[in-house]
Structure formats: structure tokens, C-alpha cells
Amino acid sequence: MRVIASRRGLMNGLLGLAVLPAACGGPPKVEAWRDRNCGCCGGWVEHLRAEGFKVDDKVVDAVAPYRQALGTPPDLMSCHAGKIGRYALEGHVPAAAIRRLLKDEPEGIVGLSVPAMPVGVPGMEVPGAEPSTYDVVAFRRDGAWRPWMRFRGLETA
């Protein structure tokens, strides 16, 4: 039997190998895009790594093109963007909210955001300051959004 490998077949096979670890219980992979001048974004990346996520941390000159490609509504923007699987992430989204998103796979949801930069979110911890209570919101492609989870610092509220 003769096997003819096409470029498409080879690429599909390699893609399958790339997603195999996650499908077999390997660490979920987050792609993150952040501005080189932002100090708090690295704290979010380290939070995700400490929580067992594999993070491809990309320092870029402009985050806007990635946000646009991910479909993040302008009113939900924060300081960095990310992607996990088919979902967008905007701002300091805690690992617990991301895990719930991956587990529940809600219909119509494009991503999660923590708008603005509340005190106590991953990367915005301030020694001696009380953490804020804040909502992680889930958004749709049309820009509509709703509260997803409520936190006080890193704890669910």
C-alpha cells in the first residue's frame, strides 16, 4: 500500500498532536498579548502559570489588533488580552473563572473580561490594601455581556 502525504494532511496531523496534551489532561494553554510597558500583566501571567496553565506570553507593541481579532467589546477592555481554546480573555481574569468557562462551555459566549483593574485581581495585588469585589463578565460576539462570576481578590464572593 502506498501512502501519499499531502501538506494539508501533514498540517492536520501536526495540529492534532498540538491539542493532544490538553485533550489528555495536560495543562491548558493560554496565549497572552501584553504591552511591554505594563507591569501588572506579568503578574497575571505568573498567576496562571502558578495555577497550572501553560502560557505563551507575547510582549507586543500594540494589543489592539489581537483584541479586535478576538472580538472583545470596547467597553470591556483592560490592559492585556489572551485566548484559551476558542475563548477570548481580557484583563486580569482569575484562573478559577477560566476553569469554569472551559468546564461549562456556555453557548454563545466568546470570552471573559475583568474590565478596568480592580485592586486584588491577579497581578494587581497591593500589600496592605483590601481587595476589591468585582465581576468577571462573559461576553458575546454582538458585544452583549453578563456577569459570570463574582470575586473578592482571588476568592469567589
Explain the overall architecture.
It is a single chain. The chain has 157 residues and is of the alpha+beta class. The chain has one domain (28-156): Glutaredoxin, CATH 3.40.30. Helix content is 28%, strand content 27%. It has four helices and eight strands; from the N terminus they run H-E-H-E-H-E-E-H-E-E-E-E. The protein has helices at residues 7-23, 41-50, 64-70, 95-104; strands at 29-35, 54-60, 80-84, 87-90, 111-113, 133-139, 145-152, 155-156. Strands 2-1-3-4-5-6-7-8 form an eight-stranded mixed sheet, sandwiched between helices. Strand 4 (87-90), helix 4 and strand 5 form a beta-alpha-beta unit. Residues 1-22 have low confidence and may be disordered.
Number of strands: 8
Multimeric state of these chains?
A: single chain
Main sheet, how many strands, which sense, barrel?
8 strands, mixed
For the record, the CATH architecture stands as 3-Layer(aba) Sandwich
Number of helical segments?
4
Q: Which parts are unreliable, with pLDDT below 50 for 5 consecutive residues or more?
A: 1-22
| Beta-strand proportion | 25-35%
Amount of helix: 25-40%
Overall geometric form:
globular
Instruction: Give the strand order, joined by hyphens, for the main sheet.
Output: 2-1-3-4-5-6-7-8
Average of pLDDT: 87
| Overall number of structural domains | 1
In the CATH scheme, the class would be Alpha Beta
User: Secondary-structure element order, as H and E?
Assistant: HEHEHEEHEEEE
What is the CATH topology classification name? Glutaredoxin
End-to-end Cα distance, whole Å, is: 61 Å
